[in-house]
Amino acid sequence: MPMMVPLQGAEIPPLPAWAGKICEQLSKTIFKRLLELRPQGDQVNWRNVGKMLGVWQRIVTVLAERWKDSECVLPEEAIAPPKEAPDSCVMIPQTDLLAAMQESLTASIVDNLAKNPVEQSEFFAGLGEGYELFLDTNGQFTGDRGRTKVYLELLGHWTEIEAMRKTNPPSTALDVYKLIAVSLGDPDHQRFDWFCDVCDGIGLFVKKRGRPAKPPRK
């Protein structure tokens, strides 16, 4: 999938409270070990630097594998901002995104080859450790408690969800779930009640829940 990014100088709206709660939950699960790599004081921990780049390399590898047969062909208006909204978001084709990530990663690793032998040793030890710090050998999130995918889907659609909540009449929870159900592997909305519990837990409230249509009797 392509990635939406704001152009330089574009004003980025603040996250709604429910999206902030998702970020808080993720900081306690899949991002917990990453946050432990934050610098402490002025001294550089080269092992942690290596871990971060190891995580980065793993993400690039997994994305390349998942995207290799799903290249999106984007319309011109998706990759160039319209004249009437020059500061709007545009999409980066996934091949360009991967190439930029890999180029930056390679440059960072090359820079660290100029360090002294002790720093190099720590850096490359961390590089290997970071490879499975964030994603396991199957490409799944380390520390996932079962809600990571729905959290990430909600974050990826937060601007659309906020717009849906402001419609008149407001969209229902079912309308929101339909937005992400296929990506969650639930096109028949069998997990809708579970989704409502997730929304209640993060404060993502809508006026009405709605109900999935019952399948026709055979």
In short:
Helix content is 50%, strand content 4%.
Relevant terms:
single chain; 2 strands; elongated
Q: What does this protein look like?
A:
This protein has 10 helices and 2 strands, in the order E-H-H-H-H-E-H-H-H-H-H-H. Strands 1-2 form a two-stranded antiparallel ribbon. The protein has helices at 17-27, 32-35, 46-67, 76-79, 94-112, 117-130, 148-156, 158-165, 173-180, 192-202, and strands at residues 3-6, 89-92. With 218 residues, it is mostly helical.
Write the SSE topology.
Layout: E1 3-6, H1 17-27, H2 32-35, H3 46-67, H4 76-79, E2 89-92, H5 94-112, H6 117-130, H7 148-156, H8 158-165, H9 173-180, H10 192-202
Antiparallel strand pairs: 1-2
Number of domains: 2
Helix content: 40-55%
The count of β-strands is 2
Task: Catalogue the unreliable spans.
Answer: 1-9, 73-81
Q: Could you give the order of the helices and strands?
A: EHHHHEHHHHHH
| Apparent shape | elongated
Classify the secondary structure makeup into a structural class.
Answer: mainly alpha
Biggest sheet details: 2 strands, antiparallel
Helix run count:
10
